[in-house]
């Protein structure tokens, strides 16, 4: 029962009073009562404050004392009531109403407010307040005579607190701020004890789980410490309740514990969110899903932090409705002050929802070739070709021209190859035909647009233009296919005995000819055979020949490297 009341006391602190020495919450209108008895909460707290100061005469003015004799006994009743509230009150002063009318649903009588219960052994007495009207003051709240008439008997029955039986006399006789030295020592010792018990409970839970689920494993990374802190905070609150710290201090101390508990719960929730994100990031495939997962993960983290901040504000006594209303009224001012932040936040959402870029995409942004690594709430991080990290503000990125290279389904090979002018025309024709044949046969080349044609004759070179689309969406795969194509072209030129053009500025001291005359003769015979058989492949192969060759050249071939020199030679040597 005590534990349930304790949890209710900690977690139910939605409206709390000010700290000691500060101003108490006041109703909308200026209070008329100098003793602050307009609301149930202020009446109880001011009674406790006066009684803890030892000013029992003032404290008695918060009690409903109908007769003169009872008023004379008022200071003594106030002292005994304070002791019972410190040791035997089951209820939360922090959750009392701060409205002059009180809570209308906790009692059939609107002039009665239930604070809690005074529980001593088998006695259970309701602790209630009543609203009465005094001249020149108006309606005020007082501790009801129905409760006060039970106080002397309860006080005698309660006796000394249980902890006092174990506190030496010299520690009980010395006090600080109204708390005995023995209780101060017990409070200090309760902190490491609570931490140890919290850690032990987490360890025990993990062991029991492993026993019940052998071999499954239970990872506590990111949630073990906050779990231990949550349990330690609850245990510490229970111990503090048993120690019997005076009610006035207990209210504020429990508020501090409630703030700590909320921070630990947020820590635990963020740890769970991180684990869930890491787990889904491994299982979820596709760049689009990864990007939405990352954005949702960051929005949830921000939501958790904002929710925790609002709860902490409520625990500290702020009216969250007023705070939210203030945010609504000041929304325009906030938007103007945080214009760039909001622009970047909306920009990040726009980038993902518009499918502009995803995590892992290769893009050209502001003239830089980059790979997107993370789309955050404020900026997008990427890695350049040089391996450096670069960040783009989302607001700027939305307004920039983004060329998404990862969305393409093919890559272009466009270059000019130069054969030496020492090659015979037949050799040039043979190389052109064989390269075209290779392009039309390659399974990863788009045959409809592929071309390899003589584009010009400049000085000592035949310039041949290579234009081919490689069907691939991966840059690394394209580089391998492009390498395969160039190596096949080099093999074809070598088998034809052709030589590549050399810049006129390069001088070779060797007198060795660049052209193999025997291969040149074979190339002449091949071209002549085409002419004699009416199979001249210029300007192009026939449609039937292209259809016959289409897709017959596998890549990679026979499980070997894509440009295996031996297989390439064996494939093309028959034509020479």
Description:
With 576 residues, the chain is of the alpha+beta class. Among the domains are: 13-159, no CATH class; 410-575, Alpha-Beta Plaits. Helices cover 50% and strands 15% of the residues. The chain is built from 21 helices and 14 strands. The protein has helices at residues 2-11, 40-52, 56-59, 68-72, 74-88, 145-148, 151-158, 169-173, 181-212, 224-243, 247-283, 287-315, 320-329, 331-337, 339-353, 394-398, 425-441, 475-495, 517-532, 543-549, 565-572; strands spanning 89-90, 112-120, 123-134, 138-143, 175-176, 179-180, 362-365, 368-375, 379-384, 389-393, 402-404, 410-420, 451-458, 461-471. It has a 5-stranded antiparallel beta sheet. Strands 1-2-3-4 form a 4-stranded antiparallel beta sheet. A 3-stranded antiparallel beta sheet has the order 12-14-13. Strand 8 (368-375) and strand 9 form a beta hairpin. Helix 11 packs antiparallel against helix 12, helix 17 packs antiparallel against helix 18 and helix 17 packs across helix 19 (517-532). The longest helix has 37 residues, at 247-283. It is rod-shaped and about 140 Å long. The N and C termini lie far apart (99 Å). Residues 1-30 have low confidence and may be disordered.
Taking all residues together, what is the mean pLDDT? 76
Largest beta-sheet details: 5 strands, antiparallel
Report the end-to-end length measured between terminal Cα atoms: 99 Å
**CATH topology of one domain, what is it called?**
Alpha-Beta Plaits
CATH top level assignment of one domain: Alpha Beta
Which parts are unreliable, with pLDDT below 50 for 5 consecutive residues or more? Answer: 1-30
- SSE class: alpha+beta
CATH architecture of one domain: 2-Layer Sandwich
Q: Helicity, in percent?
A: 40-55%
Question: Count of DSSP helices?
Answer: 21
């Amino acid at each position: 029962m005590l534990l349930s009341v304790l949890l209710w006391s900690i977690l139910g602190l939605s409206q709390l009073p000010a700290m000691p020495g500060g101003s108490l919450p006041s109703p909308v209108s200026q209070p008329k009562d100098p003793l602050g008895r307009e609301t149930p909460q202020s009446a109880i707290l001011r009674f406790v404050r006066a009684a803890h100061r030892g000013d029992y005469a003032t404290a008695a003015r918060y009690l409903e004392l109908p007769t003169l004799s009872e008023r004379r006994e008022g200071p003594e009743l106030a002292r005994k009531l304070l002791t019972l509230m410190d040791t035997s009150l089951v209820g939360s002063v922090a959750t009392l109403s701060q409205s002059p009318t009180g809570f209308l649903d906790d009692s059939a009588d609107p002039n009665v407010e239930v604070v809690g219960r005074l529980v001593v052994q088998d006695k259970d007495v309701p602790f209630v307040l009543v609203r009465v009207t005094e001249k020149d003051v108006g309606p005020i709240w007082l501790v009801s005579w129905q409760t006060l008439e039970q106080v002397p008997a309860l006080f005698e029955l309660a006796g000394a607190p249980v902890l006092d039986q174990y506190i030496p006399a010299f520690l009980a006789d010395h006090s600080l701020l109204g708390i005995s030295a023995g209780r101060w020592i017990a409070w200090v010792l309760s902190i490491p004890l609570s931490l140890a018990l919290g850690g032990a409970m987490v360890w025990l839970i993990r062991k029991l789980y492993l026993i019940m689920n052998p071999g499954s494993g239970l990872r506590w990374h990111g949630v073990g410490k906050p779990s231990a802190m949550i349990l330690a905070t609850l245990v510490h609150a229970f111990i503090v309740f048993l120690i019997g710290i005076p009610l006035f201090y207990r209210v504020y101390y429990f508020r501090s514990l409630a703030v700590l508990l909320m921070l630990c719960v947020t820590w635990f929730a963020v740890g769970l969110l991180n684990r869930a994100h890491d787990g889904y990031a491994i299982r979820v495939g596709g760049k689009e899903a990864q990007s939405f997962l990352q954005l949702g993960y960051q929005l949830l983290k921000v939501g958790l932090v904002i929710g925790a901040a609002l709860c902490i504000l409520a625990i500290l006594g702020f009216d969250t409705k007023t705070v939210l209303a203030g945010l609504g009224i000041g929304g325009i001012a906030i938007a103007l002050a945080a214009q760039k932040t909001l622009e970047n936040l909306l920009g990040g959402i726009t980038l993902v929802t518009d499918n502009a870029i995803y995590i892992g995409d290769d893009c050209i942004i502001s003239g830089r070739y980059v790979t997107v690594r993370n789309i955050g709430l404020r900026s997008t991080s990427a890695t350049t070709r040089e391996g450096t990290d670069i960040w783009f503000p989302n607001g700027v990125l939305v307004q920039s021209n983004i060329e998404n290279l990862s969305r393409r389904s093919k890559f272009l090979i466009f270059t000019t190859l130069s054969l030496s002018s020492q090659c015979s025309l037949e050799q040039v024709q043979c190389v052109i035909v064989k390269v075209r044949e290779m392009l039309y046969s390659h399974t990863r080349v788009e045959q409809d647009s592929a071309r390899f044609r003589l584009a010009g004759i400049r000085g000592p070179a035949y310039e041949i233009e290579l234009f081919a689309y490689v069907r691939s969406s991966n840059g690394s795969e394209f580089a391998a296919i492009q390498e395969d194509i160039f190596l096949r072209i080099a093999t074809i030129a070598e088998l034809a005995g052709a030589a590549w053009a050399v810049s006129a500025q390069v001088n070779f001291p060797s007198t060795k000819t660049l052209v193999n005359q025997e291969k040149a003769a074979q190339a002449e015979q091949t071209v002549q055979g085409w002419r004699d058989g009416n199979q001249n492949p210029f300007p192009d192969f026939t449609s039937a020949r292209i259809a016959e060759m289409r897709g017959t050249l596998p890549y990679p071939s026979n499980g070997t490297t894509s440009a295996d020199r031996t297989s390439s030679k064996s494939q093309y040597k028959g034509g020479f």
